[in-house]
């Protein structure tokens, strides 16, 4: 029998407490809408008592029509020795006008006596009064028992008094929190089972990842009877983060009898994960399970050979179920199977028994031994295939280039690049140009920009679509630092034409030459793809 587990997302509140992460009001509204469409059951929007932006979020969120999620506002219990009706923090909760409120209270006696500096009984009274008061204004009251696992291990009797006080006050959920993230799975299982056997309202789990166990403890808690899991997209959160819903949801939905999000919605998980990374101004983690770029990437030749026969050999699920895709990488660890699978991906027809496959394999190994890296430069790898198969087309040839670095009287430094290159006669004549040798120069803020601009100045009148190409990323890595200024440099370039992105690579003991290789590959790749599109179009027309 399938059992329902509620998903409570706290990306907008707990996730926003990650160092370096700041969501704008518009970001929060956008993420909330996406999470609702995905099908999470609760969205914690923020703590209005802590900052004006969260209060503004709840005001704007009233205009959103949530189809699946219930919006929750968050806060601590009332303060000691204050009248709850006059406490601004509590009144802002009511002003948020959400159907759900989540209140946290201390369940570890150390925090009560040391952090709050009040008596244990006063803490229990604060919890009771707060929940009883908020029951009048909200459909659901959720109580987060902060530091519950540490409190239980330190003073079990008092930790249990806290959650029983919350239950008697009328809360609808009690959430057991591993706030410091130090609980081991065996401890988590024992404590959850004990609490679940003694309390008669639904339990939730809220774990942090300080011991790399947030997901494991969440799953164990569900097996122990917990009916709600709190977490964040991508595991965002303070210190080492919160439980990652991008792992918890597919694990529960695909591998257990528990239902979370509808299975057909799981395909949206990678795009949600990438959106949150983008809005939090962070690089999307490539090694994240289920949603990361490398989650289903295969590099070793033996692995690829087995996956081509049966994907179950090295994949725990079909990547398509969670909206991800399989990647076959090419490197010095590659075997024949990698080459054949990559050729298939690139729509290159080749006989698997052809000596060319072995030739390409050996070439890749030789190039990577010199420092080339094709995992981040698949456009360069495709061009290599075409060259070794004799299918390479010549778009231009270089006569030479020169770079001069200038520093003028105003202390500004810039570079000037001069280039001489030749375009094939048939291209030049077809466009009505005479001499097919172009000689020009231009400047830039640095040598790579100057070289890029000069090359384009030569080529764009012959190949106008190159104006669409923009360089979006430029990475330099020194491969043998011990060689000092004569070290080998690898340059990786990412380019786009507004429709697709591609990566190219260059390696040399001269950074300008390495950059030139990557720049040339980038432009040739664009021209090659344009020609392929024309051929496809003409083929369909005929």
Average pLDDT over all residues: 90
Show unreliable segments. Answer: none
User: How many strands, what sense, and barrel or not for the largest sheet?
Assistant: 8 strands, parallel, barrel
Report how far the terminal alpha carbons are from each other. 57 Å
**Form type:** elongated
The computed structural class is alpha/beta
How many structural domains? 3
Q: Which architecture of the largest domain would the CATH scheme give at its second level?
A: Alpha-Beta Barrel
- Give the class-level CATH name of the largest domain: Alpha Beta
Number of helices: 18
CATH fold topology of the largest domain: TIM Barrel
- Report the β-strand fraction as a percent range: 15-25%
Count the E strands.
18
Proportion in helices: 25-40%
Radius of gyration, taken over Cα atoms and rounded to an integer in Å: 30 Å
Strand order of the largest sheet: 2-3-4-5-6-7-8-9
Kindly report the name of the CATH homologous superfamily of the largest domain.
Aldolase class I
Descriptive notes:
There is one protein chain. β3 (42-46), α2 (52-61) and β4 (70-76) form a beta-alpha-beta unit. The chain is elongated and about 90 Å long. With 542 residues, the protein is of the alpha/beta class. It contains 18 helices and 18 strands. The strands form five sheets. An eight-stranded parallel β-barrel has the order 2-3-4-5-6-7-8-9, surrounded by eight helices. It has a three-stranded antiparallel beta sheet with strand order 13-14-15, with helices on one face. 39% of the residues lie in helices and 20% in strands. The chain has helices at 25-38, 52-61, 88-95, 109-115, 120-134, 148-154, 156-169, 185-196, 214-223, 245-255, 269-279, 301-309, 336-345, 355-369, 378-388, 425-430, 447-459, 511-541, and strands at 3-4, 6-9, 42-46, 70-76, 100-106, 140-146, 173-178, 203-207, 228-231, 258-259, 297-298, 327-328, 397-407, 413-422, 437-444, 470-478, 489-496, 501-508. The longest helix is centred in the last third of the chain and has 31 residues, at 511-541.
């Amino acid at each position: 029998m399938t059992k329902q587990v509620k998903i409570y997302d706290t990306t907008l509140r707990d996730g926003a407490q990650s160092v370096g992460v700041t969501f704008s009001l518009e970001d929060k509204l956008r993420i909330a809408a996406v999470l609702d469409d995905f099908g999470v059951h609760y969205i914690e929007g923020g703590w209005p008592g802590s900052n004006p932006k969260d209060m503004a979020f709840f005001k704007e969120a009233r205009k959103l029509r949530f189809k699946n999620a219930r919006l929750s506002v968050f806060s601590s219990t009332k303060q000691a020795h204050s009248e709850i009706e006059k406490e601004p923090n509590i009144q802002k909760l009511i002003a948020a006008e959400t159907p759900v409120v989540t209140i946290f209270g201390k369940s570890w006696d150390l925090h009560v006596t040391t952090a709050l500096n009040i008596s244990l009984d006063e803490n229990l009274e604060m919890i009771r009064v707060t929940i009883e008061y908020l029951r009048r204004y909200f459909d659901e009251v959720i109580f987060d028992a902060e530091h519950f696992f540490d409190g239980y291990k330190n003073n079990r009797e008092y930790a249990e008094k806290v959650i029983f006080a919350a239950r008697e006050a009328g809360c609808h959920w009690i959430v057991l929190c591993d706030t410091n993230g130090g609980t081991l799975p065996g401890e988590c299982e024992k404590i959850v089972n004990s609490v679940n056997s003694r309390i008669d309202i639904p339990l939730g789990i809220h774990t942090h990842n300080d011991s790399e166990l947030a997901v494991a403890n969440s799953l164990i808690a569900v097996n122990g009877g917990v009916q709600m899991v709190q977490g964040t997209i991508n595991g965002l959160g303070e210190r080492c983060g919160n439980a990652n819903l991008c792992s918890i949801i597919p694990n529960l939905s695909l591998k257990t009898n528990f239902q979370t999000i509808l299975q057909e919605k799981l395909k949206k998980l990678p795009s949600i994960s990438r959106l949150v990374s983008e809005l939090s101004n962070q690089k999307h983690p490539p090694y994240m399970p289920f949603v990361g770029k490398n989650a289903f990437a295969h590099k070793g030749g033996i692995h690829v050979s087995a996956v081509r026969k049966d994907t179950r050999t090295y994949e725990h699920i079909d990547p398509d179920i969670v909206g991800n895709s399989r990647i076959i990488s090419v490197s010095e660890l590659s075997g024949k199977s990698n080459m054949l699978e990559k050729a298939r991906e690139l729509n290159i027809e080749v006989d698997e028994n052809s000596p060319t496959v072995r030739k390409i394999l050996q070439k890749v190994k030789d190039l990577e031994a010199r420092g080339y890296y094709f995992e981040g430069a698949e456009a360069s790898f495709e061009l290599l295939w075409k060259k070794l198969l004799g299918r390479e087309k010549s778009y231009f040839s270089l006569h030479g280039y020169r770079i001069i670095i200038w520093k003028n009287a105003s202390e500004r430094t810039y570079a000037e690049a001069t280039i001489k290159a030749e375009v094939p006669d048939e291209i030049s004549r077809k466009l009505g140009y005479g001499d097919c040798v172009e000689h020009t120069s231009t400047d830039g803020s640095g040598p790579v920009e100057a070289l890029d601009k000069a090359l384009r100045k030569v080529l764009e009148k012959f190949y106008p679509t190159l104006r669409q190409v923009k360089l979006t990323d430029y990475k330099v890595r020194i491969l043998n630092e011990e060689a000092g200024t004569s070290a080998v440099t690898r340059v990786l370039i990412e380019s786009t034409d507004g429709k697709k992105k591609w990566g190219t690579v260059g390696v040399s003991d001269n950074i300008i030459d390495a950059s030139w290789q990557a720049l040339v590959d980038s432009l040739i790749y664009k021209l090659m793809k344009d020609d392929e599109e024309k051929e496809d179009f003409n083929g369909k027309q005929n």
